[in-house]
Amino acid sequence: MEAGKLLLLGCLVRPLLMVLLASLVALLVAPLVPANRVIPLAALAVQVIPLAALAVPLVPANPAIPLAANRVIHLVIRPLATVRLATARLVIAHLATRLLTRLLTRLLTALLTALLIALLTVLLIALATALATALLTALATVLAATTTTTMSDRRIELSSRDVFVLDNLLVERGRKLVYDFLYGGGWNFGWKSSAKTDEFSFWHKHFAGHLNKKNQKEYDCAEELRKTSPTMFIFWEYLSRTVLKGHTVYRCYANAHAYGTDGTIHIDSKTEGAYTCVYYPHEVWQPNWAGETVLFNADKSDIICSIYPKPNRLLIFKGNIPHIARGVSRTCPELRITLMFKSFSRPIEDQKDAADNG
User: Fold this and answer.
1) Checking phi first, is residue 145 left (phi over 0); if not, alpha (psi -120 to 50) or beta?
2) For residue 234, what are the contacts with CB-CB under 8 A and spacing of at least 6?
3) Three-state DSSP class for 322?
4) Does 160 have pLDDT greater than 70?
5) Is 202 exposed, middle or buried (0-12, 13-18, 19+ CB in 10 A)?
6) Closest CA to 166 of 176, 177, 174, 155
7) Are 154 and 189 in contact (CB under 8 A)?
8) DSSP H/E element including 147
9) 60-108 pLDDT, tens per residue?
10) What are the residue boundaries of the structural domains of the chain, listed by start?
11) CB 340 within 8 A of CB 204
12) Which residue of 11, 121, 236, 320 could cross-link 69, Cys pair, CB 3.0 to 4.6 Å?
């Protein structure tokens, strides 16, 4: 009888101890649970209570336990299992809510970032366009700064002259704008005066016009120049209103020579009425740096003249004159940069008709 009482007392005390242990654990864990308005405080307190349900598998099935003890177990332990299931559902709902909130927050952040980047891109493009427009306007103003009298004096007749040199072509601001533009990017190395025979190459920058007369005939490239290089187009417009009035441009490009990249003697065109215009945009050039443009007679047996690359100088000569860009000396610290316009003294159509009739 005494043994039965002790067994019944053990069965009653054991689950109560488990509940007390679970409550103690809940008190210890409570400070670690973050405050959240979504889950009531009561639910947070209940989260740890299901630990008591661990007592279920620890209670052995014993037919010797009296019916009263089994009822106590069912009244205490089973409700704990039910509480654990309800709490698990509440926790899952809470976690799902937090996950969805984070996903929506990140998605909204990504959308706002993309919108901001697109807005900044549009602003940068608009700013670059405005700066380019301002630069072109400034260049046009500078090139147009020459007085009407001076422009009238420079409208010369080239048909009776093979070589023409004009110094101080642009005002200083205009020269600097042209030089800074040419000195920028876009250069390609590998250009040769005569592709079939030359051994050494130099730097080249193409703006408009034909590249190979065998595969492409000369054409008026003014409109192409306006689209590909507005700065050079403005320069050409200035020349076409002054020293090259009535000319048609069919090619525009720039060359750059460093020490050891010499050119060779060649002609630019066999067509009568073709002219080559060379502009020297440097701010400073020393005589010891060499780099002259040398013109020869028809059989290349003697020099007609040697043109010093004086800053802001313009050289015009007939395209059928043999010439060469001499390399710079060892002491030259600069690239020898020249800008070329090749033109016909009449429209392309008239030029072709004259060549056919000749």
Assistant:
1) alpha
2) 136, 139, 140, 143
3) coil
4) no
5) buried
6) 155
7) no
8) none
9) 545 555 555 565 556 655 665 666 667 777 778 888 888 888 888 888 8
10) 2-111, 148-357
11) no
12) 11
